């Protein structure tokens, strides 16, 4: 067991950290430029920079840290600084696929040229809407059309005229009737009657019938050839129309072709547009615009908006035109599947859902292509299919647009299959450490894609070079960003002290910008209420006190139950096997200390320590571990010559919730030793600390709240000067106590003792020396350890005697 250590209480100066004020050489924060952009985050910043600049794929970065640490703002600031020196990303458009309309074509364009192409195509359609009708109304076209019509009519008339002449020569009359042609004999200008026909000789009659049949056959042949002639006629007309439309389209489209002469994909598209325009020139002759006063639209009509011309429109997905400098930095606040990869919209038309390439909408990956995409991992993981979709795009290096319904095979609606867009983007995923570790363990793709982690520190070590000055700059920047009054130097020191309090360590300052900004804004309110021109330390202290007051209802109820005696806590006198332990309760983001009575009872037994909390399933695994450590300590320290013949029970009195942690193990051990030695413990004290098997006292958490919790109980009953707490010596560097406690210690009305071993705690609480084994292996007579060992030996004797009387082992 460790020997004797310091028994003096801590001084008031040791309870609250002293700041190196000499390093704060300013009067108001207005004098500071606030240049510390990412104080204390060099490790994370370097990782983000590397991810942003490394040319290799899959070097995406996961930014991990606590909320409020400025992860989003810092990451975006770094990316913006790097992105402005990177080349501007290309434009992307979707255009119609005239051969397979359900597979729109994606075209990559130089930055800023997508909108220009869209405008030129709209102008092209509008120009043709005026030019093509004019071409078809021109005198040249009408003349050539008439020539074709006349040639067709003349050829038909010539054939029929020959047949009529031949018929007359062969005495055959051709008569037109409502149902077609009829034939009869003819003589001397008159049609033969039936009697006249029968009066002919057989030779004349046979010759006439043969002539009629021949004429009839010739007319039938001519009439059968009419459809073929009409088809040829139509072909001539179509050829004329095609030539005329081609001339007009070629003239109109040449400007677009020249403007994009260096873009092969655009040239291929324009060739398809040209062919479709020529083949469908009649679309421009459908003059039914509401703006039209005649059969054709006026020159001011925006014909490109009409449904029949949608096929020639250009759907701009990404346009990095004027105003764009450098690569894009996109932060998607709602990373749904559609918002990441884009979506295909539908319109209802007569009860049916229709769509086309103009209804393809871009996603965040399209906008960030060639640059950086910032996402919050919690939001991505909470959206159905979003995480899987993001990974697929990063793995394949392309953006394929599809709907959740298609992905899950829930719909069978005919949809579009747009060309995938090649993807080159660096993703910055921001989340908490838990997210990073869970994804690393559960998703085999995660570490393959996100090869870099940017781990944001929660704290800044005060001992680092320039930490104090840099933190003052940080406070100045936060104040400026929050729009508050400037802070004077003492106020900055108060903020730093509260910052240490938030870390629970007097040697560290919090880097939780959100908490600091909230504190400054609340102090601004109190400074404004008091009409102060700047924020002083009193405003910081007021903001802190008011925040604790707002959250302190449960804490005050707990204090009230103690003062009324409902919850029994002694703050004076002495009792055997009873001690005041200290715990911390967390409600929301507010934590406070609460003392608890811990009691121990002992009797002869088989070496079993009964943890009532564990037996009733109110104790957590760490608390149970602490109990087993106590058992090991007792056996190794006292049961060296005889078996540990002890039965002991330990319990937190009036505890109706769970107990977890080992910070009460020192209190449990001392209560147990008090019961064994039958030595009373001073109830003026409370104790916290965990113990190991060698009796060393180990550091615990929440030391400030624990001390203040017991102090408030004592203060409510009246401070006597004897009251105090015992804490691990390792926690002294964590002390950032409230001024009320510091003032009481300075006035000698409250005491705080550090402990390095159980011996220190026993000496303070019992007034007895613990004692150290001498050369003979025994503890000094009258020492506390001697009493414990003698009692355990007595238990062993009782157990041995009982075993002999019972004829077996005592149970």
UniProtKB/TrEMBL annotation:
EC id: 3.4.21.53
Which domain of life does the UniProt lineage start with?
Answer: Bacteria
The entry's active site is: 663, 706
| Keywords recorded for this protein, A-Z | Coiled coil, Hydrolase, Plasmid, Protease, Serine protease
Q: What class of enzyme is it?
A: hydrolase
Q: Residue limits of the Lon proteolytic domain?
A: 573-768
Q: What is this protein called?
A: endopeptidase La
């Amino acid at each position: 067991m460790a020997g004797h250590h310091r028994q003096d209480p801590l001084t008031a100066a040791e309870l609250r950290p002293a700041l190196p004020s000499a390093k704060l050489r300013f009067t108001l924060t207005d004098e500071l430029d606030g240049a510390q952009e990412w104080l204390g985050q060099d490790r994370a910043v370097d990782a983000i920079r590397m991810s942003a600049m490394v040319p290799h794929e899959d070097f995406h970065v996961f930014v991990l840290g606590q909320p409020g640490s400025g992860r989003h703002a810092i990451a975006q600031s770094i990316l913006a600084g790097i992105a402005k020196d990177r080349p501007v990303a290309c434009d992307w458009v979707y255009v119609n696929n005239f051969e397979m309309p359900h597979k729109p074509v994606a075209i990559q364009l130089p930055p800023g040229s997508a909108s220009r192409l869209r405008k030129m195509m709209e102008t092209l359609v509008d120009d043709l809407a005026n030019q093509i009708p004019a071409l078809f109304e021109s005198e040249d076209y009408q003349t050539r059309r008439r020539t074709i019509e006349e040639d067709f009519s003349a050829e038909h008339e010539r054939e029929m005229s020959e047949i009529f002449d031949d018929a007359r020569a062969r005495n055959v009359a051709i008569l037109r009737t409502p149902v077609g042609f009829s034939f009869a004999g003819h003589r001397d200008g008159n049609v033969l009657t039936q009697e006249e026909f029968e009066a002919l000789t057989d030779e004349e009659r046979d010759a006439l019938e043969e002539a009629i049949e021949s004429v009839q056959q010739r007319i039938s042949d001519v009439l059968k050839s009419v459809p073929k002639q009409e088809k040829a006629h139509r072909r001539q007309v179509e050829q004329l129309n095609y030539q005329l439309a081609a001339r007009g389209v070629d003239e109109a489209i040449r400007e677009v072709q020249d403007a994009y002469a260096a873009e092969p994909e655009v040239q291929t598209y324009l060739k398809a547009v040209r062919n479709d325009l020529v083949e469908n020139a009649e679309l421009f002759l459908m003059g039914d615009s509401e703006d039209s006063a005649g059969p054709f639209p006026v020159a001011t009509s925006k014909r490109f908006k009409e449904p029949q011309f949608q096929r020639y429109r250009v759907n701009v997905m990404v346009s990095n035109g004027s105003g764009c400098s450098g690569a894009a930095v996109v932060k998607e606040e709602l990373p749904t599947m559609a918002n990441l990869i884009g979506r295909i919209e539908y319109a209802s038309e007569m009860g049916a859902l229709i769509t086309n390439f103009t209804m393809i909408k871009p996603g965040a990956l399209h906008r960030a292509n060639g640059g950086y995409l910032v996402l919050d991992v919690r939001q991505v993981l909470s959206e159905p299919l979003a995480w899987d979709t993001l990974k697929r795009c990063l793995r394949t290096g392309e953006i394929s647009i599809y709907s959740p319904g298609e992905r899950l095979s829930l719909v069978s609606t005919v949809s579009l299959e747009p060309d995938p867009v090649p993807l080159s983007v660096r993703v910055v995923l921001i989340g908490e450490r838990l997210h990073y570790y869970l994804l690393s363990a559960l998703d085999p793709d995660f570490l393959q894609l996100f090869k870099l982690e940017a781990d944001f520190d929660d704290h800044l070590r005060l001992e680092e070079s320039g930490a104090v000055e840099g933190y003052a700059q940080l406070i100045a920047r936060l104040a400026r960003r929050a729009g508050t009054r400037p802070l004077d130097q003492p106020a900055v020191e108060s903020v730093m002290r509260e910052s240490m309090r938030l870390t629970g360590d007097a040697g560290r300052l919090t880097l939780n910008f959100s908490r600091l900004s909230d504190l400054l804004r609340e102090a601004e309110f109190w400074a404004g209420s008091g009409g102060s021109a700047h924020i002083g330390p009193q405003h910081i202290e007021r903001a802190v006190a008011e925040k604790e007051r707002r959250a302190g209802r449960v804490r005050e109820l707990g204090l009230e139950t103690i003062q009324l005696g409902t919850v029994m806590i002694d703050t004076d006198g002495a009792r055997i096997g009873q001690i005041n332990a200290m715990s911390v309760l967390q409600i929301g983001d507010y934590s406070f200390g609460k003392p608890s009575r811990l009691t121990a009872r002992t009797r002869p037994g088989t070496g079993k320590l009964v943890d009532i909390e564990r037996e009733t399933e109110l104790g957590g695994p760490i608390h149970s571990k602490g109990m087993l450590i106590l058992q090991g300590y007792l056996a190794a320290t006292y049961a060296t010559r005889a078996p540990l013949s002890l039965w002991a029970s330990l319990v937190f009195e009036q505890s109706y919730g769970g107990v977890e942690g080992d910070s009460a193990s020192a209190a449990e051990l001392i209560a147990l030793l008090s019961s064994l030695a039958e030595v009373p413990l001073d109830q003026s004290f409370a104790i916290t600390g965990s113990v190991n098997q060698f009796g060393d006292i180990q550091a615990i958490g929440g030391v400030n709240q624990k001390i203040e919790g017991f102090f408030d109980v004592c203060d409510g009953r009246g401070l006597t000067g004897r009251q105090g707490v015992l804490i691990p010596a390792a926690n002294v560097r964590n002390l950032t106590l409230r001024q009320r406690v510091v003032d009481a210690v300075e006035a000698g009305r409250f005491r705080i003792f550090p402990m390095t071993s159980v011996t220190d705690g026993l000496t303070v609480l019992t007034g007895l020396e613990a004692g150290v084994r001498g050369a003979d292996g025994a503890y000094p007579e009258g020492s506390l350890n001697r009493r414990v060992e003698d009692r355990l030996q007595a238990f062993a004797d009782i157990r041995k005697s009982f075993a002999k009387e019972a004829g077996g082992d005592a149970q």
